[in-house]
Sequence to fold (482 residues):
Amino acid sequence: MPAPKPEYKLPAFICLFLLGVTLTQAFRPGIFNSNGKSNTSQVVAQTSPKPAPQVIVQAGEVRPLPGKLDNIPVFNSNSPEWVKNEGILLSTFPPNGKKVPAAHLNFPFQGRFDLFAHHYTHTPKDLQTLYLGVMLHNPGKKPVTVDVLQAASYLLKDAPFVTLAPYIENNDGKAFSGPGARAVSDVLRGVRQAEFPAKLIIPPGQSRLLLNHGIEVRNLEKPVNGRSTFMRLRSSNKVYAASLAMYAKKNPDGSERSPTLAEWQALLNNGNFAGPRDKTPTPPNATSGALIYGRVAGVSSGSQWQALLTDNAKAQTLTIPQRGQAISYAIDTLRGGQLGSGQIQTAKMLVRYPDTAYEAHGNYGVEYNLSLPLNNPSKETQTVTVTLETPLKEDKLSQGGIRFRKPSLDFPFFRGTVRLRYTDERGQQKTRYVHLWHRTGQVLEPLLKLTLPPGSQRRVQVDLIYPPDSTPPQVLSVRTVE
Fold:
């Protein structure tokens, strides 16, 4: 029985945009020739039934991804995705002395950890600015140093969702579609934005703000905005973390100001959950009904997945497939979307709120480091391509291979930047950043094409941080051209 189709919820502003496009097409004026008369044949052509889409089944095999997630904890704040009511988004503080103990998960961080916070807001009361605060607390008796290794935070208005070409060379980081994709692209390059300190020193028993940034909606064409933040951190000792949402405070003259540390602390101690709450997810043991993944609010386990793609666990190289065939490695598989690999890569939750996702579906912010030691053992020169692509989602392969569609479905399922490192045909080491914007089921040109002489080897490294606002699963496919 095919896996239940998960419920996808498009942001309201995207739904309005699509509705506008539909209405524009529906009321499109007639087409006229040079004499000013209606060109009936063209009008008829527009209203003719569309031909049935062509489904393409890729010849080859799908393999599970070698390796596994590491055990670095990730502060993962993504529920509620759309915030209208201020309150606690995610707190790992102890529940002692808190007005709503259930809002505090009692999980300290120490050493390396990541922080991901991804939230939107629309039409708030009086167009007030919603502030997103991230607080760290030192429960110990000695100062704690938190190193901010990489950090980036972007508003939707500064990184809007736009339609782009499938591939754009992005060495300068100026290609992006969405705030989440832009933030993780910066971190992939090792960026720490200037607004974030290199170190945050927290005195004993005190708290400090790591983030106190607004999500403005005033003076926008539509009162819709969001903020996506991604950081890699390292703490010298235990710290607790919390993400909170609060509307701007007012100055005596009526202008807005950001909340103070004391005001954030009061919200943490006395506040309730931010709202409205997202849909309750489907339990992992459910066997019927709609599959609702839910939004993540908790601490997930795993920041990085390193994989050496070889013929088997004992091999050192990956033998390229026969001409016309492909080997595809599943990326970011999840319940209902294993693509026949038999593997679920979703990060487990160490702690979570009961009405939020059971797993970190989507692995937003997880870095995949994929090494391909390609080997051409034949006596002929072979042309090999490497492509990151999004086949039609399936759990088990219904037609024996991953499926694509012409035309593709009109939904962007992957939008983000990947890093390629390889040796080119002249023996020079290359590092390229390429922005991908792919629809589901889209048949793509290769991301990379290489010529391998007889008996030669060539290593290719593909790295990406899985971008928020993308939808898994994907595959990394190696094909030998016919």
